[in-house]
Specification:
single chain; 165 residues; alpha+beta; Yope Regulator, Chain: A
Length: 165
């Protein structure tokens, strides 16, 4: 199975496994990365099969401001006792980069299969149903990134390629 086929298969199975009244997330797809969020793209669930590494990564990512990401990670850490049992021992909260944080797990594979898609989709559905209510009930206002100002029509970024003559 190819990575994109696996990605969409996992998404379809996970969405079908959610309770009917469960809110449906917004989605963003970037080739073989699927991001699902509930109104804040900085706080999203991410699925990424990586055939070259033999890994599928699944997680809840915090990719906002460093201050917001630290608040989110501390909040999830406070809830860890209630999450460890239902999520399972394969999930890990980590400082992924100097500013980004994530609660994630990986699945090792030698080949992307329908059986692996079933396993990963079950974990995604479980993560969504356990973690989305925590996200919705967050007891703080996370600092938001300030969007970059819009560029004037026809302006170019300093590092953009010049058109060929």
């Amino acid at each position: 199975m190819k990575a994109r086929e696996f990605l969409f298969g996992v998404e379809e199975r996970a969405m079908a496994a959610l309770p009917p009244a469960f809110p449906r997330p917004e989605r963003k797809v970037m080739w073989t990365i699927l991001q699902l969020h509930f109104g804040d793209p900085d706080v999203h669930f991410e699925l990424q099969p990586q055939p070259s590494r033999g890994l599928v990564e699944l997680g809840l990512h915090f990719e906002g401001t460093p201050e917001a990401n630290d608040l989110w990670a501390a909040y999830i850490a406070e809830c860890a006792t209630d999450l460890i049992g239902p999520l399972g021992p394969d999930w890990e909260l980590e400082a992924w980069t100097p500013s980004w944080r994530r609660l994630h797990r990986t699945f090792a594979f030698s080949q992307l299969t329908a059986e692996l898609a079933d396993e990963v989709s079950g974990e995604l559905a479980k993560a969504l149903t356990l973690l989305q209510p925590l996200i919705a009930a967050v007891p703080f206002e996370a600092p938001r990134r300030v969007p970059a100002p819009a560029r004037e029509a026809g302006s170019r970024r300093w590092n953009s390629r010049k058109p060929r003559a």
